[in-house]
Design goal:
415 residues; alpha+beta; Beta-Lactamase; Helix Hairpins; Heat Shock Protein 90; six-stranded antiparallel sheet; rod-shaped
C-alpha cells in the first residue's frame, strides 16, 4: 500500500510540475508576443507617419510646381532618354512628349537656331562635363511656325561607381512674359538712344543750317547802306530775301514735324482738282531751274478729283520738287501721276539728276540724313514728307540709280 501511495504521489507531482511548466511557458510566450506586437505596432505607426509625411511632401511639391507653373523631367543617362514627369504650365501648346524620348528628339523640337546648342549642352551634361545645366531656348509650337521661350534647369540626382552621372532631374518653365518685358526694355533703350542721337543731330544740323542764312542776312544787310549802285543794291536785296526764305523754310520744317507728331495737327480733308494743283506747283518752281533744265507735267486724265489734306499734299510736292531742282543740273523734271488703281493714286516727280545709290533709298527718309554733307539743307524735307504721307494713309518711296536720275513717288487714297 505504501508503495502504491508513493507512486501515486510521484505521478501527482509530475502532473503539477508539467502544468506549472506549461503555464510558465505560455506566460513567457505571451510576454514575448506582447512585446513583439508592441514593437510591430510602433513600426507600423512609424511607417504610417512616414507615409503621411511623404504624402504631405508630395502635396507640397505639387503645390510648388503649380504655383511656379513648372514642368519636371528626368534623364536616364545610360539610355540617354528624357521622360517628362509632370507639367503644370497650363499651356496646351507646350511641347511635352509622351513616353521616353531621345535627346535628339527633344532638341529637334527647338527652333533650328537653338538645336545644336541644346543638343551639345545636354550631351555634355550627361557626360559629366558640367555639374549644372541651365539653358534658354525657343520651342516650336506644334503645327505652326510660332514658338515660345523656355528656361530649363537640371542637376545630377545620382552617380555610378565611377562618379559618372546616372540620373539627371530637371525642370522647365515658360518665360514668354519675361522675354516680352526684356524686348520692351531693349526697345525703350533703343528709343532713348535714338532720341538722344536725334537731339544731338538736331542741334548740330540746326546750328549749322540756321547760321548759314542768318550770317548771309546779317552780312548783306550790314553792307547794304554802303552800296550806292542800284544794280548791286538790288542783287544784295535779292540775296537777303533768298536767305530769309531759307531760314523761314527751316523753321517751318521743324514746326511741321512737331505739329504732326504731337497730334495737334489733324487731317483737313477737302475735294480738289489734282491737275490744277500740279500745274500750280510747276508754276512756283519755273523760275528756279538751272539753265538748260525743263520742267513739265504728265497728266493721264483730263480731270482727276482727289479728296485728302491739300495742305500736306502741297507740302510734300514742294519738298520733292525742291530736291529735284537742287540735284538736276541738266535734262528735265517731270511732275505727274498714274491712273488711279484700287482707290489709290500714285503721284511722282521724275528727274534726270545725279541719282541715289540703292543703299541710301531708305536712309534718305530719316531725319537729318544727307547723302552729301556738303550740299545745303537740313535733311528734314524727305523725313517730313514721309511723316505726312503716312498721316494721310499713304506711303512714299524712291526709284533711282546713282547717275541715272530719280523718281520719287507718293501714293495716297483718293478719298
Amino acid at each position: 500500500m505504501l508503495e502504491l501511495f508513493l507512486v501515486s504521489q510521484r505521478q501527482s507531482f509530475s502532473i503539477e510540475a508539467l502544468i506549472w511548466g506549461t503555464g510558465l511557458c505560455l506566460l513567457l510566450a505571451f510576454v514575448v508576443l506582447y512585446f513583439y506586437q508592441r514593437r510591430i505596432g510602433k513600426s507600423l505607426e512609424s511607417e504610417l507617419s512616414q507615409l503621411g509625411n511623404v504624402t504631405k511632401h508630395n502635396v507640397e511639391y505639387e503645390l510648388v510646381l503649380k504655383a511656379m507653373k513648372l514642368c519636371t523631367w528626368h534623364i536616364d543617362v545610360p539610355e540617354r532618354t528624357i521622360t517628362y514627369d509632370n507639367d503644370f504650365r497650363n499651356s496646351p501648346d507646350c511641347f511635352v512628349p509622351v513616353g521616353d524620348k531621345s535627346i535628339e528628339q527633344v532638341a529637334d523640337a527647338m527652333v533650328e537656331a537653338d538645336q545644336a546648342r541644346i543638343r551639345k549642352a545636354l550631351n555634355d551634361f550627361c557626360d559629366g562635363m558640367a555639374d549644372e545645366y541651365h539653358e534658354i531656348s525657343r520651342v516650336v509650337i506644334p503645327h505652326s511656325k510660332k514658338y515660345y521661350w523656355t528656361e530649363s534647369y537640371a542637376t545630377i540626382a545620382s552617380r555610378d561607381a565611377d562618379g559618372k552621372p546616372k540620373l539627371i532631374v530637371g525642370t522647365s518653365m515658360r518665360i514668354d512674359d519675361r522675354k516680352s518685358m526684356e524686348t520692351a526694355l531693349v526697345e525703350a533703350r533703343n528709343k532713348a538712344e535714338e532720341s538722344d542721337r536725334l537731339k544731338s543731330a538736331f542741334i548740330a544740323n540746326m546750328s549749322h543750317e540756321i547760321r548759314t542764312p542768318l550770317n548771309a542776312i546779317i552780312g548783306f544787310t550790314s553792307v547794304l547802306p554802303d552800296v550806292t549802285e542800284e544794280s548791286e543794291r538790288r542783287e544784295l536785296i535779292n540775296l537777303i530775301q533768298e536767305n530769309n526764305q531759307k531760314l523761314l523754310r527751316i523753321v517751318d520744317d521743324v514746326m511741321n514735324i512737331s505739329k504732326i507728331e504731337s497730334g495737334k495737327e489733324p487731317l483737313k480733308g477737302s475735294a480738289f482738282e489734282l491737275n490744277d494743283i500740279l500745274m500750280s506747283s510747276i508754276e512756283q518752281f519755273a523760275g528756279k531751274l538751272k539753265p538748260g533744265v525743263t520742267l513739265s507735267t504728265e497728266l493721264p486724265l483730263n480731270m482727276m478729283e482727289v479728296n485728302t489734306d491739300l495742305g500736306r499734299l502741297m507740302e510734300i510736292l514742294t519738298h520733292l520738287l525742291t530736291n529735284a531742282v537742287k540735284f538736276t543740273n541738266e535734262g528735265s523734271i517731270v511732275l505727274g501721276y498714274d491712273a488711279p488703281k484700287d482707290g489709290r493714286i500714285k503721284i511722282w516727280v521724275r528727274d534726270t539728276g545725279i541719282g541715289i545709290a540703292p543703299k541710301h533709298h531708305k536712309s534718305i527718309f530719316e531725319r537729318f540724313f544727307k547723302v552729301d554733307e556738303y550740299v545745303p539743307g537740313a535733311g528734314l524735307g524727305l523725313s517730313i514728307s514721309r511723316t505726312m504721307a503716312l498721316s494721310m494713309g499713304g506711303d512714299i518711296g524712291v526709284e533711282s540709280q546713282l547717275g541715272e536720275g530719280a523718281k520719287f513717288w507718293l501714293e495716297i487714297p483718293i478719298k
